[in-house]
Design a protein that fits this description.
There is one protein chain. By secondary structure, the chain is an alpha+beta fold. Helix content is 34%, strand content 20%. The protein has helices at 17-39, 42-67; strands at 71-76, 81-88, 95-97, 110-112, 127-131, 139-142. Strands 1, 2, 3, 4, 5 and 6 form a six-stranded antiparallel β-sheet that branches. It is elongated.
Length: 143
């Protein structure tokens, strides 16, 4: 004979509303402690932008010395953009070209401060730096 099996429902234990509210409150408190240090990077962003500008200036200067071709750094305040360029004066009139590549990432040396999250809320003021081929004849102008 086959014994009749009784089916005993298994009670699934869920979480109560109080437990869920407690967890959400704890996560919110943790977020208040952790998030501000991650977003309060105003001075650090300014420092990072200054380091980027100084690096571009040093790079343009070293490229001018290395190649014997005049290089410069253009800070475009309207576009909030930093670009390194070279001046090709081998033809009848000098030609400015922005096809200068960053030494590390091998991309065009073109930093867009307005759209790059690393420089959020950093505003550029206008300045132009030009380094001629000979080290004695370097010119710097700023407005």
């Amino acid at each position: 004979m086959v014994a009749a099996m009784s089916v005993v429902p298994v009670r699934l234990r869920g979480r109560s509303l109080a437990e869920l509210l407690l967890v959400i409150t704890l996560l919110g408190a943790l977020a208040l402690v952790v998030v501000p240090p991650l977003t309060a990077l105003g001075p650090e962003r300014v420092e990072l932008a200054a380091v980027e500008v100084a690096g571009a200036i040093r790079f343009a200067q070293s490229e001018a010395r290395r190649s014997g071709v005049e290089h410069g750094v253009l800070l475009d305040t309207a576009a909030q953009r930093l670009r390194v360029y070279r001046i090709d004066d081998s033809g009848p009139s000098p030609v400015v070209t922005f096809e200068v590549y960053h030494p590390l990432d091998k991309q065009l040396y073109d930093i867009r401060f307005a759209t790059d999250a690393r420089y959020q809320k950093v505003r550029l003021d206008e300045a132009t730096f030009v380094y001629q081929a000979s080290p004695a004849a370097s010119r710097t102008s700023a407005s």
